[in-house]
Design goal:
The complex is a heterodimer of chains A (about 220) and B (about 300).
Chain A (H helix, E strand, L loop, with lengths): L1 H18 L2 H9 L18 H8 L19 H13 L5 H8 L3 H12 L13 H8 L10 H5 L18 H13 L9 H6 L4 H12 L10
Helix pairs in contact in A: 1-6, 2-3, 4-5, 4-6, 7-11, 9-11
Chain B lengths: L1 H14 L27 H14 L1 H4 L10 H4 L1 H4 L7 H5 L4 E3 L4 E3 L1 H10 L12 H15 L24 H11 L1 H4 L6 E2 L5 E3 L17 H11 L10 H12 L13 H8 L10 E2 L2 E2 L9
Antiparallel strand pairs in B: 1-2, 3-4, 5-6
Helix pairs in contact in B: 2-8, 7-8, 9-12, 11-12
The chains are: A mainly alpha (about 220), B mainly alpha (about 300).
Chain lengths: ~220, ~300
């Protein structure tokens, strides 16, 4: 716990530092599939927020067009687990895997607590399609699918340390994740809850739910 | 048209039990319940919606009668539709009925009153109170518009076979840690969503159901848990695990039985004289019902 308070200061410091590091921000603009490079240095050795900012944004907002998730306000337990899963290859994503492999356990803890303390995204959600709204709020109990909001909180704003917010995530990202759970290229999560549910979703369910939780309007095709 | 269909099916259930269903509903298909969008947009529909609001967020829409953090929907899943969680529409069809709990014939409204007193640890709304009228309207609407499969008995919570070994607190504790704690918390206190709404309801402690509730009975809790929990994975626990974890959950203290006479022993003798109640027993070093109840 002491560690945490101490970290918050450190987190702020590195965030400030990163504003003077345009280098990292260039990473993304240069090529669509940049070779991620972890700037060394800093107190923790491998971890520098600037690397992450190149894709996840300075404030951790993500990038809708690229399907890069927002990390803002996601629970630190969840973030840590995901980074470890990327590093071990259980959660398959070439870009994030090589980035996560370069992080020490301490780096992972620092990164997770940094993003966890940022104010989460919050978008008003509008049902674009009756069935998405229905699944999100009422579930489909005939197939034992509870409402998504039962576990992800009202309007998908998240519950505690294990149930990440979905609100405001890029539609493309959400869609990729639901497909990944289904394919098995992402671990099913605690009690295999999410994998089990994703297996029951049709491609149409996945598309409409992803649009719904992204808070984007259907007219702009997934862009907020 | 739907209404007619429900009526026809209902008649079938009363007269020609066992005959083929004419609309091709497969034998084992559960009854089909109406969706919210089918609620009529008239004065009656308004009352139905009010009933649904009360059912979904009881503490907000019937505050005067609620003494804990629960809502009806936390136990009666799919807003009172789901078979295996004592669905509201099937209950509506089943009253007036004799109840051993109070040794007399109860109306549906009286049955609703009991839920407030025990499961909601609150006060019974007086008969005729708009709260009860709204809940009755909701139940009636759901039943009236359902396509009921007369082959199935979907009322209540299905009975669960007795376990091979007597239920154990110690084993239940392990089942709980592995399957329930993620959502209901290490102290059974439940969890709130990041926006403050209750997400996972408390299973014991002072914000949960009281000792008079159906869920405080081992057989009902075990059957309910086996059928419905862990959420989305109903049916996955073994019978033994379901009994053990029910014993663990009901082996914790909770708000006092409102029929408490001033003595735990006497209250046990009068109202809990059954193997299915742990009230008054010494469990994990504590006499259940003797308080104080943890401040969850």
């Amino acid at each position: 716990m002491m560690n945490k308070t101490k970290y918050v200061e450190r987190g702020k410091a590195s965030l400030k530092a990163l504003l003077f590091l345009p280098l990292a921000l260039g990473v993304h603009a240069e090529s669509p599939h940049p070779q991620p490079r972890i700037p060394t240095g800093g107190e923790s050795g491998g971890f520098n927020l600037a690397t992450c900012a190149g894709c996840h944004g300075i404030e951790g907002d993500g990038n809708a067009a690229e399907g890069t998730p927002s990390l803002r306000g996601l629970p630190s337990t969840y973030l840590k687990e995901q980074l470890h899963a990327f590093a071990s290859g259980e959660r398959q994503n070439p870009v994030m895997s090589s980035i996560a492999q370069a992080l020490s356990t301490e780096d992972i803890t620092l990164a997770a607590s940094h993003y966890a303390q940022l104010r989460p995204l919050s978008r008003p959600l509008e049902a674009q399609d009756e069935s998405a709204n229905d699944l999100a709020i009422h579930g489909r109990w005939s197939e034992n699918i509870p409402p998504c909001d039962d576990c992800h909180g009202p309007e998908g704003k998240g519950v505690g340390e294990n149930f990440p917010a979905l609100n405001g995530q890029p539609a493309l990202y959400l869609e990729n994740q639901l497909q990944a759970f289904k394919k098995g290229s992402r671990p099913s999560g605690p009690l295999k809850l999410m994998g089990n549910i994703a297996n029951k979703l049709s491609d149409t369910d996945i598309r409409t739910l992803s649009l719904y939780y992204s808070g984007s309007s259907p007219m702009t095709g997934g862009q907020p | 048209m739907k209404h007619l269909m429900a009526l026809v099916l209902l008649m079938t259930s009363l007269t020609t039990l066992g005959n083929d269903l004419s609309d091709g509903v497969p034998e084992e298909s559960p009854s089909v319940l109406p969706a919210d969008r089918d609620i009529p947009k008239d004065e009656f529909g308004k009352m139905v919606r009010q009933g649904q609001l009360i059912f979904s967020d009881t503490g907000q829409f019937a505050r005067a009668y609620v003494g804990n953090d629960l809502s009806c929907r936390n136990c009666h899943l799919d807003q009172g539709r789901k078979a295996g969680s004592a669905p509201l529409w099937a209950a509506f069809l089943s009253y007036p009925a004799y109840r051993a709990k109070n040794h007399r014939v109860n109306t549906f409204a009286e049955r609703l009153q009991e839920c407030f007193r025990y499961s909601m640890n609150g006060k019974a709304p007086p008969l005729g109170d708009p709260t009860l009228v709204a809940l009755e309207s909701y139940a009636y609407w759901m039943e009236k518009n359902a396509k009921i499969n007369p082959r199935l008995t979907e009322r209540g919570v299905p009975q669960l076979q007795k376990p091979s070994s007597p239920p154990s607190y110690e084993r239940g504790k392990i089942v709980y840690a592995n399957n329930c704690e993620l959502c209901h918390g290490a102290n059974g206190q439940g969890k709130r969503a990041n926006d403050g709404h209750l997400a996972f309801p408390p299973l014991w402690g002072n914000r949960s159901f009281n000792w008079g509730a159906g869920m405080a009975q081992l057989d009902k809790a075990a059957a309910y848990i086996k059928t419905n929990m862990p959420l989305s994975l109903g049916g996955s626990l073994s019978n033994q695990d379901a009994w053990d974890v029910a014993y663990f959950v009901d082996g914790h203290d909770r708000p006092q039985d409102p029929r408490y006479t001033g003595s735990v022993d006497e209250t046990r003798a009068l109202f809990h004289h059954t193997r299915n109640s742990l009230y008054g027993h010494l469990v994990a070093g504590h006499v259940l019902g003797s308080g104080p109840v943890s401040q969850n």
